[in-house]
Write a structure and sequence with these properties.
alpha+beta, 15 helices, binds (R)-mevalonate
Length: 447
């Protein structure tokens, strides 16, 4: 066998890659073995998905319940490592359900592809760009036809062109941006849009005597918006006092960017978790949503909150959401496939409505808690349990928890630390030690 060190990493098999990492790093055998477990995949499958694969990275998958969107009940898979997010979504959905659940509507799946045209003809004057834009527009049917040769399903439905000017310090002058609009149906559509951009680019160059630089989709999918609304009855949220406080928290997020970023981060907790579980490009969703949050020039809340004439709280969200139920890993990743099937959805628009509802629900729970008792109480419970697990040192009794401790024992230590207001590994160790001693005495007594 070739010495793995001499081989290029990408040409190594799994064993050689792990051997290589072991030699290059301080990881011990136990740690290296963590990469050996590829879970539901075999190594070739993950190696086909990404380059230089060494293993799989797992995060918890949970279910948000109580969701009713447009009159239909859903069990919603959420993949996330952060505690409280799934419970928060489920609780919010339970409250919204009392008023009929969420109402949502998603636009058609129209994606935008951009083709950047520069150095056209002998001059880049605005008369020249006007003329070229006219030429492109006159050839629209031909360009659309050309784009549509690339797919039987997705359809290029329109093309527009506009001039922009280099606003950077390089001062490269005007350029023409040709935008193709593609109905990608049930796919997110990145691949087909990029392909259509690439196939039309040479024709655009020929028509204009220009030079195409970039040809790529835009992740700012403002023709693919989803809107969702939920009503949260006043009596279920802590009455008028809490409602007013929630409106103040919204005012804060609407008016102050520092707060808006955190407020929207909470929304993305929900959106990303469903996006990950259903195999979406969550980076694209994030980028689009954050750009949309600044559409009027200031970064603001992605949700809107107000009181209706009944005195109930109403929440609304409007975001660009490019999601698909075909293509990408939705066809290949077994867990993603199962999560999509669990949702029992028939279109990418339906998925978008669910994701928007989870984002809204998540935001409701966060600002409700923040406006009232704060979020640390709930967080502390989970945090405290994790601290107990980290402390370890159990005497080997019990069955479920860490190091032989039962879940009840973990709960007991965790609760004691919360009551004492001292959540730390050292305190957990002391309590565990005293519990171990008591248990030993108990055992001796029985002998
Ligand atoms: C934490 O992941 C999310 C929150 O900070 C969101 C918010 O502040 O609205 C609780």
């Amino acid at each position: 066998m070739t010495n793995p060190i001499e081989k290029k990493f990408r040409n190594m098999d799994h064993k050689e890659r792990l051997e290589f990492i072991k030699n290059k790093t301080k990881l011990d055998d136990k740690e290296i073995a963590l990469f050996n477990n590829t879970s539901i995949f075999n190594f070739d499958e993950i190696n086909d998905m990404v380059e230089n694969a060494i293993g799989v990275f797992q995060i918890p998958l949970g279910i948000a319940n109580n969701f009713v969107v447009n009159g239909k009940e859903y069990l919603i898979p959420m993949a996330i490592e952060e505690p409280s997010v799934i419970a928060a979504s489920s609780n919010a959905a339970k409250i919204a359900k009392k008023a009929g659940g969420f109402k949502a509507k998603a636009d058609k799946s129209i994606m935008t592809g951009q083709i950047q045209l520069v150095s056209f003809g002998s001059s880049s004057s605005s008369t020249n760009t006007d003329k070229l834009i006219k030429t492109i527009m006159e050839n629209k049917p031909k360009l659309i036809k050309l784009a549509n040769t690339k797919s039987k399903f997705a359809r290029c439905i329109d093309i527009q062109a506009r001039q922009i000017n280099d606003e950077s310090a390089n001062n490269l002058g005007p350029m023409i941006i040709i935008e193709i609009y593609v109905d990608t149906k049930d796919a997110m559509g990145a691949n087909i849009v990029n392909t259509m951009c690439e196939v039309t680019a040479p024709e655009i160059e020929a028509l204009t005597d220009g030079q195409v630089i970039l040809k790529i989709l835009s992740n700012y999918s403002t023709n693919r918006l989803v809107r969702c609304k939920g009503i949260f009855p006043k009596e279920s949220i802590g009455g008028d006092r809490v409602l007013k406080r929630i409106l103040f928290s919204y005012a804060f997020a609407y008016s102050d960017t520092y707060r808006a970023v955190t407020h929207n981060k909470g929304i993305m907790n929900g959106i990303d978790s469903v996006a990950i579980a259903t195999g979406q490009d969550f980076r694209a969703i994030e980028a689009g949503c954050h750009a949309y949050a600044c559409r009027d020039g200031q970064y603001r809340s992605l949700t809107k909150w107000y009181e209706n004439s009944n005195g109930d709280l109403v929440g609304e969200i409007e975001i660009p959401l490019a999601v698909g139920i075909v293509g990408g890993i939705t066809n290949t990743h077994p867990l993603v496939k199962a999560c999509i099937k669990m949702l029992d959805i028939s279109s990418s628009q339906e998925l978008a409505t669910i994701i928007a509802a989870v984002g809204l629900a998540q935001n409701f729970s966060a600002i409700r808690a923040l406006s009232d008792e704060g979020i640390q109480k709930g967080h502390m419970k989970l945090h405290s349990k994790n601290i107990v697990k980290m402390a370890g040192g159990w005497g080997g009794r019990g069955e479920g928890g860490e190091g032989g401790a039962s879940n009840e024992q973990i709960e007991e230590v965790s609760q004691q630390m919360i009551n004492e207001g001292n959540i730390s590994v050292s305190r957990a160790k002391e309590i565990i030690e005293s519990m171990n001693k008591t248990n030993k005495q108990h055992d001796n007594y029985h002998i």
